[in-house]
């Protein structure tokens, strides 16, 4: 294709996009402009004023349909079903019948009052991975109904709403989020039915990385933060909590109902959970421990018994150990069953019948060994390169870091005076403890 033809096609494409944008803009209806606007009958006579728009926010539709309006007629507020509406235009509603069947508004499952409960409230932009506020909501016709299609989060829209009425009714879609990329928090604000839940497939929250969820949780208000935690599976929520700043995590655990906080801490990795509990008061810590299964609570109490800043205080318990008589294939099978702990298993400790340490097999060595090889033989072969690197639980972390660097290892085994492993301290555990002020930079928060 010649340069001229390419330029011609590019120009034609740009014209089509401009035309499409103009069409979308003209079809949008501003919720902010609609509220307070007149409701007219077929003869054009005003019969009331729009108070709010009701939409089925938590239903199966990708774009929530408008189910009706709340209108003010004199001193009365009544519900006007969507099938009574002929059209929604800029700041104005036209009815398709002169006869009004006005009903008292009773919320049905999934319904939300858009102006009261969504506009000007916090929401999560899942694509942009940030917390923002809805400056306006945009409605648009789709087939035979009106649906909620987007959220305006721009500053000009806020300024437009402060202007005269003729400005308020005109959409200014400079920065609009597609509704499918939004997780709103209207459910709790409206005291909706308990069975109503945001669909994870629409919000895409389950696809966010734990660090991204941690950023979002830190930016949300108290009510929205607890609601978001309620939407997540406990395991997913616990992963996000492990990425939070200590001060924010401390506040979150205090805000949450004790039974929910206990469940979240129980799902965290033991070393992360112990660090989170250290920041609470003794009474708060004990309440959470009493809400956990006895075995998990006992494990955390043993970790908390070690002083902060020591190897014992930063270690994680061993999720997997091996016996000399096992084959490599058997250990691999047990390793596969521990997939949720993949980040905490850099090696497998080999113990004798009395629980004393015999060796430490790195995952690479386990991966390249023959299936039928015995753990005892593999451990004996590795011994020629030196014994496992171990430290005492009361050693300071700075000294443990020196051992880690000298051995060029990724983890250290923490053993007691009898040579029995108590846990493992990972390289990132040492960094977390030695660099407590590093934090994660919240560029989005600073730029808001």
UniProtKB/TrEMBL annotation:
Protein's UniProt keywords contain ATP-binding: no
Keywords, ordered alphabetically: CBS domain
Chain ranges of the CBS domain: 315-378, 382-441
UniProt key word Protein transport: no
Annotated PROSITE patterns: CBS
Any single GO CC term annotated in Swiss-Prot or TrEMBL for this entry: membrane
Domain of life: Bacteria
One annotated GO molecular function: magnesium ion transmembrane transporter activity
Protein name from the UniProt record: CBS domain protein
């Amino acid at each position: 294709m010649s340069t001229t033809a390419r330029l011609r096609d590019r120009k034609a494409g740009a014209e089509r996009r401009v035309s499409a944008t103009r069409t979308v803009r003209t079809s949008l209806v501003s919720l902010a402009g609609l509220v307070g606007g007149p409701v007219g009958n077929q003869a054009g006579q005003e019969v009331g004023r729009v108070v709010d728009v009701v939409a089925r926010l938590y239903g199966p539709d990708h774009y929530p349909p408008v189910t009706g309006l709340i209108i003010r007629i004199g001193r009365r507020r009544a519900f006007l079903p969507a099938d009574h509406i002929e059209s929604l235009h800029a700041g104005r509603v036209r009815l398709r019948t002169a006869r009004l069947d006005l009903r008292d508004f009773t919320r049905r499952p999934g319904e939300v009052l858009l102006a009261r409960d969504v506009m000007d409230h916090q929401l999560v932009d899942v694509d942009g991975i940030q917390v923002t506020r809805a400056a306006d909501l945009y409605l648009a016709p789709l087939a035979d109904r009106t649906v909620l299609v987007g959220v305006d989060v721009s500053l000009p829209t806020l300024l437009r709403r402060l202007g005269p009425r003729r400005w308020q009714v005109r959409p200014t879609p400079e920065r609009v989020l597609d509704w499918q990329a939004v997780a709103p928090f209207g459910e709790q604000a409206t005291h909706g039915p308990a069975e109503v839940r945001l669909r994870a497939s629409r919000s895409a929250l389950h696809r966010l990385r734990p660090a991204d969820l941690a950023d979002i949780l830190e930016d949300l208000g108290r009510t929205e933060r607890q609601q978001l935690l309620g939407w997540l599976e406990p395991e997913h929520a616990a992963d996000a909590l492990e990425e939070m700043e200590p001060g924010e995590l401390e506040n979150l655990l205090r805000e949450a109902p004790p039974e929910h906080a206990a469940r979240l801490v129980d799902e965290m990795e033991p070393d992360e959970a112990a660090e989170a509990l250290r920041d609470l008061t003794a009474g708060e810590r004990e309440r959470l421990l009493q809400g956990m299964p006895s075995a998990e609570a006992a494990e955390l109490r043993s970790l908390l018994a070690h002083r902060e800043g020591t190897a014992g205080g930063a270690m994680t318990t061993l999720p997997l150990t091996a016996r000399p008589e096992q084959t490599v294939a058997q250990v691999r099978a047990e390793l596969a069953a521990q997939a949720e702990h993949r980040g905490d298993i850099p090696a497998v400790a080999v113990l004798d019948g009395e629980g004393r340490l015999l060796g430490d097999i790195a995952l690479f060595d386990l991966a390249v060994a023959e299936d039928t090889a015995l753990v005892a033989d593999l451990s004996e072969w590795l011994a020629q390169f030196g014994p496992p690197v171990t430290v005492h639980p009361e050693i300071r972390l700075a000294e443990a870091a020196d051992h880690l660097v000298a051995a060029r290892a990724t983890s250290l085994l923490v053993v007691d005076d009898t040579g029995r492993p108590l846990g493992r301290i990972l390289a990132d555990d040492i960094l977390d403890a030695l660099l407590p002020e590093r934090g994660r930079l919240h560029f989005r928060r600073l730029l808001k």
